[in-house]
């Protein structure tokens, strides 16, 4: 009986990448690049400064009449916070405030009012009053203030 050499069989077959998958990946990547070039960037306002006299750091969101909320930024307690490149929401802006996880209410202003005030917005005292009425403690003081 002749000896047959024992050849080792790999435990897993080697997988080859099919050329069709490479082509599909390249086409998908090109499609993403093309779409990103066709969709225009939203127009923005260079900056909006939020004057926050309250004792709360405020999460500020905004929207126009019919759209969902857009995050604007965080207005630090007892400070002026300038937020750059804010999405321009058109003729009507509604700001929504939350502090310490509590609702601070909403304030509606027009684009014309914001522009006339050099894109400065004063948070009304009622926002802090509303948050305080829920029993929220003031935000911790910022370092260096």
Would you kindly provide a brief summary of this structure?
The chain is built from 3 helices and 7 strands. With 145 residues, it is an alpha+beta fold.
User: What percent of residues adopt helix (DSSP H or I)?
Assistant: 10-25%
Proportion of beta-strand residues: 25-35%
CATH architecture of the domain at 44-133: Sandwich
Average pLDDT rating = 87
Number of helices: 3
Class inferred from helices and paired strands: alpha+beta
Please report the distance between the alpha carbons of the first and last residues: 93 Å
Low-confidence stretches: none
Describe this protein's structure.
- The protein has 145 residues and is α+β, with helices and mostly antiparallel strands.
- The chain has 3 helices and 7 strands.
- Strands 3-2-5-6 form a 4-stranded antiparallel beta sheet. A 3-stranded mixed beta sheet has the order 4-1-7, with no helix packed on it.
- The chain starts with 18 loop residues before the first helix and ends in a 12-residue tail after the last helix.
- The model has no long low-confidence stretch (mean pLDDT 87).
Features:
Immunoglobulin-like, 3 helices, single chain, four-stranded antiparallel beta sheet, 145 residues, three-stranded mixed beta sheet, alpha+beta
Topology readout:
Blueprint: H1 19-38, E1 44-52, E2 58-63, E3 70-75, E4 79-87, E5 92-99, E6 102-110, H2 111-116, E7 120-122, H3 125-133
Parallel strand pairs: 1-7
Antiparallel strand pairs: 1-4, 2-3, 2-5, 5-6
């Amino acid at each position: 009986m002749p000896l047959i050499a024992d050849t080792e069989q790999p435990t897993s077959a080697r997988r080859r990448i099919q050329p069709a998958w490479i082509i599909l990946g390249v086409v998908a990547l090109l499609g993403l690049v093309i779409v990103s070039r066709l969709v225009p960037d939203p127009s923005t306002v260079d900056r909006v400064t939020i004057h926050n006299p309250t004792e709360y750091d405020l999460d500020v969101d905004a929207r126009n009449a019919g759209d969902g909320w857009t995050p604007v930024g965080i207005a630090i307690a007892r400070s002026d916070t300038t937020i750059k490149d804010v999405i321009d929401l058109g003729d009507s802006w509604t700001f929504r405030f939350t502090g310490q996880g509590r609702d601070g209410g909403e304030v509606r202003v027009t684009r014309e009012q914001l522009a006339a005030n050099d894109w400065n917005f004063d948070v009304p005292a009622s926002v802090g009053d509303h948050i305080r009425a829920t029993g929220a403690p003031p935000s911790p003081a910022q370092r260096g203030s």
